[in-house]
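REQUEST FORM: STRUCTURE PREDICTION
Request ID: SP-0412
Submitted by: Lab K.M.
Chain count: 1
Length (residues): 357
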Amino acid sequence: MVGNNVQVSVDEAAYPREMKRCTKCREVKPCTEFYKKAAAKDGRREQCKACTKADRASHKRVCAIDDCEKPVLARGWCNAHYRRWRSHGDPLKMVIVRHTGCSVEGCDRPHYMKTYCTLHHRRVETNGDPGGVESQLQSREGPCEVDDCEEDVWAKGMCVAHYGLNRRNGSPDTRVRNRRKAADIPEVCEIEGCNKPYKMNGYCQMHAFRVAEHGDTGPAEVMLRPQKGKTCKVPDCDRPAKSRDKCARHFRLELRHENPERAREEVLRRRTRQNENGMLTVTNKDLARLYASPCAECGATGKVEADHIIPVANPFGRTSIGNLQPLCRSCNSSKSDDLMVVWRARKARDARRDEAA
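STATUS: Completed
RESULT:
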C-alpha cells in the first residue's frame, strides 16, 4: 500500500516508465499507445487508444432508419430524415419537385424560384401578385416611338433617354420639362438687389448657404470679399474694404448693430461649443506671453489676438494653451474658423486669382 488510495502490484512496480497497463484490455503497452491527459499523474489516459476508439464507436448513435448509418441529429434520425419528417410528416417520404417552367398560365419562361420565372417572382416580391403573362418591358426590337428618334427601344416603346423623361415628367417630350422648369424655377436669386443665378429654394448659392447655416439670408452684398483698390471708409482705418466699403472688423460691427439677436445667438453658440469641446485652464501669464509674441503668420507685433489653431467649431477644438497661437487682427479675421492648412490654401488661391486678373 503506497499512500492512501493508490495500489501498485508487484508486477507493475517492475514495469519501466515507458510502459503502461490498459485498465480495460489489461495489456501492457508503450505509453505512446495512450492518449495524453494533463490531469493524470503520468500524463496519459487509463485506456489505450484501441479501447478508447472501440468505446466511442459503441456509444455513437446512428440514424434509426434501416441501412442509414449517418449520425443522429434529433428524434433518433439523421439530418436528411429529420427534415423530411418536419416537411412532410414522414421521415421516409421523399418528394422531389422539379419545375421546368413558370407556373403562371401561358408563360413559357424558365423557372427561377418559388414556381415562378424571374419576371413573375419579382412581381410577387414587390406587389404580392404575379400579374398576367405580359411583360412590363415591351419588346426591345425597333426604333423609339418618339418622333425624330432612331435609338433602340428600351422600355414601353421608348429609348433609355425618353423612358427616363417619361418617368420623371410624365411625358417623353423635352419641351414639357423645359416649360415646367421655366414656370417653377426663377432665373436669379429672389433677394432684392442680388442678381446671382438661382441655385436652390429661391436663393443663389451664397444666400442658400446663409439660410442653411444661420437661418437668415443677410444683406444682398457679398460678405467679406476684398474690394480692389478701396479702403475702409471709417475714419483713421486704412484696412482694405471687404463689403459696404468697410473692412471686415467694421463690417461685422455694423452687422451686429443691425441684427443684435443674431449676434447674441452666435455668441451663445460659440460658448456652447466651447463647453462641449472642453475648456482647460489658461492663466493670465500664458495670455500675456501670447499677446507679447508676434503674429505667427505675418510677424506683425501690433493688435495681436489669441487664435484657436483647431477652431472651436471643430469637435476637436479645445480652449487650452496648446491650441492657442498669436495672430494679428487682420490674419485672425481672415482665418475665421478654418484650419491653418485650409486658410493658407485659400490665400494662395486668392493670390493666384488676383494675379490672373
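NOTES: The longest helix spans residues 260-277.
Reviewed by: T.R.
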